[in-house]
Amino acid sequence: MSNVAIHVEHLSKKYRLGQRQSDSKYRTLSESLLEWVSAPWRRLSRKDHRPSENIIWALKDISFDVQQGEVMGIIGRNGAGKSTLLKILSRITEPTAGSVDLYGRVGSLLEVGTGFHPELTGRENIYLNGAILGMKRTEIERKFDEIVDFAEVERFIDTPVKHYSSGMYLRLAFAVAAHLEPDILLVDEVLAVGDAQFQKKCLGKMGQVAQQGRTVLFVSHNLAAISSMCKTIIVLESGRLKLKGPTAQAIDYYQSTLNAQEDESNDFLPRSAARFRNPMIAPDHQAETSIQSGEPFSACIDLIVGKEFVGYDLFCILMDSLGNIVVHAHTDNRSFHHALAPGALKVKVSFPSLWLKPGLYSLHFKLIGAALDGEKIRLLSDHVPLSVSGEAAGEALLGVLTPPLQWAIHTTD
């Protein structure tokens, strides 16, 4: 247990629907009046429901360990219990059953901007928010210039944050939280907010923290980002731990459950509904998800068609880690003159040497079609992560492509 940073044993958390979350015995007059007026209606609305039907288990009997210096990802569908787990680990929420042991100082990036006061200046909020997050004043002073430089708000540091734009507010809030030096860092979907530049800084900062040997739990729906940072992933489903394993294995399992759930939902649709299955990158190389920049690669997917199409168009979309579209290609059947018969099809698309900038990408397919009976069909596949590696340039490169251009320099008279 000496190398364990987080020990979770038989952890469970339940919520009762309709229960007041505030247990404070001190209430304002308006809160007391509202409680008195609404009480009969709440009793009436609850009388036809059994107590057991109002209980939801956000987490159910979860156990796992995280080693010191390990970067572990947590993935799952919305409502799987990811955020609840991090809130319990952060001591924000108490568990219903089970125990959590944390060995080291804990820092959380759960809700960026919590603790900021709109009437205070950026400078004052750095000290206030830093103190709330557990930073000592000497530590804040030592990192103050670095925080301001990271947030890019130096000109407005003595302006009340109520006058900041939403982007400036988020940058400053994240800069304070990101400059903590905890032994354990809990991160919940910070890449889902802000503009592209902000997200890029988030991802870069998380990468730095991971390289410094700290223990990190990282929740994200961005499979490309989480696969680059994490060697181990936990998959949660309906509050239960379904799998803890290597990144590739966990992502494959998670995507297979998404496909299975999609198939179950399609059972309620007409049997003629088309659907995608098993998207893969580089199928000729055992579904590898990592390539060298400039290396050709291919992607494929199964397409199940249950009715005749009078026309269709297939799209293949490649995006970077920030969601920017890099490639948006299609079969060019815009006239819809190509028919599509019912059956199981294998769709494969080959990419030439794109010379992508090293980084994280994701790929998915889309189908737009018109059936013989007039039904319009629009279908999207799951995203597949792709990691592109290559030699790092001396200076950070902008853009997306890094082709080996032919240079010629001549003197002029």
Structure report:
- This protein has 413 residues and is of the alpha/beta class.
- Helices cover 26% and strands 32% of the residues.
- The protein contains eight helices and 18 strands.
- The strands form four sheets. The protein has a six-stranded mixed β-sheet, with helices on both faces.
- Strand 8 and strand 9 form a beta hairpin.
- Helix 3 packs across helix 4 and helix 3 packs across helix 5.
- About 2% of the residues have low confidence.
Layout of helices and strands, plus pairs?
Blueprint: E1 4-16, H1 29-46, E2 55-67, E3 71-75, H2 82-89, E4 97-102, E5 106-109, H3 122-132, H4 137-151, H5 166-178, E6 184-188, H6 196-211, E7 215-219, H7 223-229, E8 232-237, E9 240-246, H8 247-266, E10 275-281, E11 290-292, E12 297-305, E13 309-320, E14 325-330, E15 343-351, E16 359-371, E17 376-380, E18 384-389
Parallel strand pairs: 3-7, 3-8, 5-6, 6-7, 11-18
Antiparallel strand pairs: 1-2, 1-4, 8-9, 10-12, 12-15, 13-14, 13-16, 16-17, 16-18
**In which order are the strands of the major sheet placed?**
5-6-7-3-8-9
Backbone CA Rg: 26 Å
Counting helices, strands and paired strands, the structural category is: alpha/beta
Would you identify the CATH H-level superfamily of the largest domain? P-loop containing nucleotide triphosphate hydrolases
Q: In this structure, how is the largest beta sheet organized?
A: 6 strands, mixed
